[in-house]
Design a protein that fits this description.
Distance between the termini: 29 Å
Structural class: alpha/beta
Largest sheet: 7 strands, mixed
Low-confidence stretches: none
Number of helices: 9
CATH architecture of the largest domain: 3-Layer(aba) Sandwich
Strand content: 15-25%
CATH superfamily of the largest domain: Type I PLP-dependent aspartate aminotransferase-like (Major domain)
Order of helices and strands: EHHEHEHEEEEEEEHHHEEHEEH
Helix content: 25-40%
Bound molecules: pyridoxal-5'-phosphate
CATH class of the largest domain: Alpha Beta
Length: about 375
């Protein structure tokens, strides 16, 4: 296997893939694989319940929050959230920090008024506007943030806590697709957290939503039933057939994560990985980074070769060395190494060794 730096779908822990392969034809003596089971049968219900319980434990989700296993991806949630939460207020606030939050705002405009509470557009989305500078509207239904911008490689260096600016009454929504479970988050500070599974959790097709109870039951009349949080919550995420296999793999990943010491344990590894890679980048003239050092993402490391005419040669040599999917997103250019939970320090070391060697040969 290669070291896979894809932004998502992304590398999964090898232990998880091996276990899934072993259980593919016969899950725990059921005589069938998980993909073939009824979602209402006792075997699959036990898998889904364990996955939810483990996720709750890992994220320390308070009892007054529902954990929903949905479909439609994070882009689907960009519509599902306003459909559920705009309510009679008809307005929401958005903080813009890069491609994903900009896209989320655009989608929300289809469902109500949107006010931009803060934007780092002027810096080319290389900074996160400090919370003290956010200008919230008088009575928004919610405030939307994307706390890790996967494309730009930007991560909030602080926990969003509107109590600090005297607006604790506004529910905070956060797109945590690309850093969920990579660091501790105080769920109680948020109204809703959501993310696609295909980076830190498992296969594409599963969307995780963690939502506070008081935000349920306000969906617009035209909100599809399958996307009404209250309907989904009341049916235990089984209003319609859930993405069963993706939930099963997610459950194996949650168990793997618990064996790594949970979120606190994996965070220590993630810090070590990010320090290794950014430390190398800062010390090598051949490469440059553009995101402000205070808000560099631990998960998605974006960097550039100073001589961009060498980009193709870099990617070809990296592939040759067993380092895959390093090309940056087309809107940003350059390179991006996504180093999610499943990427071991060894993989980041292999990347740094390769980059040092490439710079020595071409610099
Ligand atoms: N939001 C963020 C932060 C992402 O990284 C992605 C990645 O694909 C998305 C939204 C879109 O997710 P999906 O393709 O699952 O809809």
């Amino acid at each position: 296997r290669v070291w896979n730096f894809s932004a998502g779908p992304a590398a999964l822990p090898e232990e998880v893939l091996r276990q899934a392969a072993e259980e593919m034809l016969d899950w725990h003596g059921a005589g069938m694989g998980v993909m073939e089971m009824s979602h209402r049968g006792k075997e699959f219900v036990s898998i889904a319940e364990a996955a939810e319980a483990d996720l709750r434990e890992l994220m320390a989700v308070p009892d007054n929050y529902k954990v929903l296993f949905m479909q439609g991806g994070a882009i689907g949630e960009n519509a599902i959230i306003p459909l559920n939460l705009m309510g009679s207020k008809g307005r929401a606030d958005y903080v813009l920090t890069g491609s994903w939050s900009v896209k989320s705002r655009k989608e929300a405009l289809r469902y109500g008024d949107v006010h931009v509470a803060a934007t780092s557009e002027a810096s080319g989305y290389t900074t996160v506007p400090p919370m003290e500078s956010w200008q919230l509207s008088p009575d928004p239904a919610y405030l939307f943030t994307c706390t890790n911008e996967t494309i730009g490689g930007l991560e909030y260096p602080f926990e969003v806590d509107l109590a600090r600016i005297g607006r604790a009454e506004v529910p905070v929504v956060a797109d945590v697709s690309s850093h969920i479970l990579s660091r501790p988050v105080d769920v109680s500070k948020y109204g809703l957290l959501f993310g696609g599974a295909q980076k830190n959790i498992g296969p594409a097709g599963l969307t995780i939503v963690v939502v506070r109870d008081d935000l349920l039951g306000q969906a617009a009349p035209h909100c599809p039933s399958a996307f009404d949080y209250k309907t989904v919550a009341e049916a235990g995420s089984m209003y319609n057939t859930p993405p069963t296999y993706a939930i099963y793999i997610a459950g194996l990943v949650f168990q793997w994560l618990k064996r790594q010491g949970g979120v606190a344990g994996i965070e220590r590894r993630n810090i070590a990985k990010a320090e290794l890679l950014y430390g190398f980048l800062d010390g090598c003239e051949f490469y440059e980074t553009r995101v402000d050092a205070s808000c560099r993402s631990r998960m998605n490391v974006t960097f550039f070769l100073r001589d961009e005419s060498l980009n193709d040669a870099f990617l070809a040599a990296a592939k040759e060395a067993g380092l895959a999917q390093l090309k940056g997103h087309k809107s940003v250019g350059g390179m991006r190494a996504s180093i999610y939970n499943a990427m071991p320090l060894e993989g980041v070391q292999a990347l740094v060794d390769f980059m040092r060697d490439f710079a020595a040969r071409k610099g």
